[in-house]
Amino acid sequence: MSMLEWLLQVVLLALLGAAIPFALRLERSLREIRRDRSAMEGSAQGLSEAARMADAAMVRLRASAELAGRQVAERTAAAEPLRDDLRYLIERAETLADRLEGLVRAGRPLANEAPRAAEQPLQSQAERDLMRALALGAGKAGR
C-alpha cells in the first residue's frame, strides 16, 4: 500500500470517528421521536374517545332539553284555563267588593241607629253578620 492509500484510509477513519457521535445523537433523537409518536398516538386515541363521549353527552343533553321543553309546554297549556278562571274570579271579586263597599257606606248612617235596632231580635244569620260588620266599620271610623 502506498502512502497515499494510507493517508486516505486515515482520513476516512477520522471522518468515520467524527461521524459516530453524530450517529449516536441521531439514533437517540430517533428513539425519542418514536417514543413521542407512540405517546402522541395514545393521546390522539384519548382525544378521539373524549370527542366521541362529548358527542354522546350532547345527544343526551339535547334529548333532555327537548323533553323539558315539551313538559313546560304541556304545563303551560294546562295552566292557561286556570289563569282564565282566576282572571274571571278576580273580576267577580272586584265587582262584589265594590258592591259591598257601597253597602257599607250606605249602612254607616244606620250604624248610629244600631242600638235601637239591637232591641229588636235579628231574623237571620246574614242580618247578624251585617250588623257585626257595620259595628266594626263604625268602630274603625271612630278611631
Automatic annotation (TrEMBL):
Keywords: Membrane, Transmembrane, Transmembrane helix. Residues 33-108 form the DUF6468 domain. The chain crosses the membrane at residues 6-26. InterPro entries: DUF6468. This is DUF6468 domain-containing protein. It comes from Neoroseomonas soli.
